[in-house]
Design goal:
The protein is an alpha/beta fold. 31% of the residues lie in helices and 28% in strands. The strands form three sheets. Strands 1, 2, 8, 9, 10, 11, 17 and 18 form an eight-stranded mixed beta sheet that branches. Strand 14 and strand 15 form a beta hairpin. Helix 7 runs antiparallel to helix 8.
């Protein structure tokens, strides 16, 4: 049985970032991906301004640099033309391929179509027949993480999401956010511009709005917005935001496997990259480095506080959303909110 310093399960943004940092320190790493290609995940495909410097993406990966944002509540609208991009839209497969290309000629052995079927004390079983040993194990394998299950950590906070990829010609570089408690309870609907499509979707926690009801409401809202989904591709996926730590002896969790997505927006790429770097630093004992995990959890904390207020607002929820749009007209408040969310 071949043994590695580190085995990373999952080649998404977190796993690939972790592998990159560790490879620079000369570690012997096995990176396992169950799919054919890395980063093959259903996603709205947005990277915030905060996340962009962590990846330093080349221009050919970026589909749109979003510098126009339109906010909607039930009674108000607010349009912002911003001096710089606050979000970048990308294709997840292209992002994965680019991140993987950075690992060429390093100490990372990459294996696709490699499903971890069992985890033992110091080894993993892949595709039910191959065993690989490890000193450290990193679970960066998403919402349905086998590493998290091995640790017996429950996942109680999950967003259900529904989305359509609507084909369009020359979409505008505008992000649109719709807060409407009638349809989405405490959550929202989005329109993200991509190269040849618009990603139009919504999310909610089934405790407050079931997946069936969410989909039903979403279709009513699509009709109201006159969005034609005749030739659109339907997508649905769960998002975990149940964070319970990232280090468990010689086993680590990163990204959505750690529950680091936002429970308000569903965003997870920024937190995934931060946590992938933090796990690598923890393995390298770089205690003097910046605490990226704290940055990720604090980023989520304020979003979850707003989500809690919205849930507790009850019948006044639409009023709260209206007040948010009114507050956005104040330059100081607008700058503070924009800087946090992007």
């Amino acid at each position: 049985m071949k043994k590695y310093d580190v085995i990373i399960v999952g080649a998404g943004p977190a796993g690939l970032k972790c592998a990159k940092v560790l490879s620079e320190a000369g570690h012997d790493i096995l990176l396992l991906e169950k799919n054919d290609v890395p980063g093959d995940k259903i996603c709205a495909g947005g990277i915030t301004r905060k996340g962009f410097p962590l990846l330093d993406l080349p221009n050919e990966i970026i589909e749109h640099k979003v510098d126009e944002v339109m906010f909607h509540s039930r009674h108000f609208h607010d349009f912002k033309k911003l001096p710089e991009a606050v979000m970048y839209t990308i294709n997840r497969k292209e992002l994965g391929r680019w991140q993987l290309s950075l690992l060429k000629n390093t100490g990372v052995e990459y294996r696709n179509r490699s499903q971890v079927s069992d985890i033992r004390k110091e080894s993993v079983i892949v595709n039910n027949n191959e065993a690989f040993g490890f000193r450290y194990l990193v679970g960066a394998d998403g919402q349905n993480s086998i590493v998290r299950k091995h640790l017996k950590l429950p996942v109680e906070k999950i967003l259900a999401t529904v989305q359509y990829q609507i084909p369009v010609t020359n979409p505008r570089s505008r992000l649109e956010i719709f807060m409407d408690a009638k349809y989405f309870h405490s959550w929202y609907a989005w329109i993200f511009p991509h190269r040849n499509t618009l990603a139009v979707g919504t999310c909610s926690n089934a405790r407050y709005l079931s997946g069936k009801k969410l989909k039903e409401n979403f279709h009513k809202w699509l009709d109201k917005q006159h969005l034609d989904i005749t030739n659109a591709k339907y997508e649905s996926y769960p998002v975990s935001y149940d964070y319970r730590g990232f280090r468990f002896g010689n086993i680590f969790l990163a990204g959505e496997a750690a529950g680091l997505a936002s429970g308000l927006t569903g965003e997870g790429i920024y937190q995934a990259v931060l946590s992938g770097r933090q796990v690598a630093y923890a393995l390298l004992n770089k205690a003097e480095e910046k605490d990226y995990m704290h940055e990720a959890t604090q980023y989520n904390y304020y979003q979850h506080k707003f989500l809690d207020w919205s849930i507790k607002a009850g019948m006044a929820r639409s009023l709260l959303h209206d007040l948010v749009l009114i507050a956005l007209k104040n330059k100081r408040i607008n700058k503070k909110i924009t800087n946090h969310f992007s």
